[in-house]
Amino acid sequence: MRRQVPGHGSGFNEESTTAMTMTRAMRRASQRNGERLQALPWNDLVDVTEFSRQRHAELHPGVVQRHRPDGVWMNNHYTVQVFDGLEVLGRPATKLMIRRNDSGPIHSWYDFQRIKNALYGDEATAIEVYPPESKLTDVANMYWLWVLTE
Question: What are the residue boundaries of the structural domains of the chain, listed by start?
Answer without folding.
Answer: 14-148
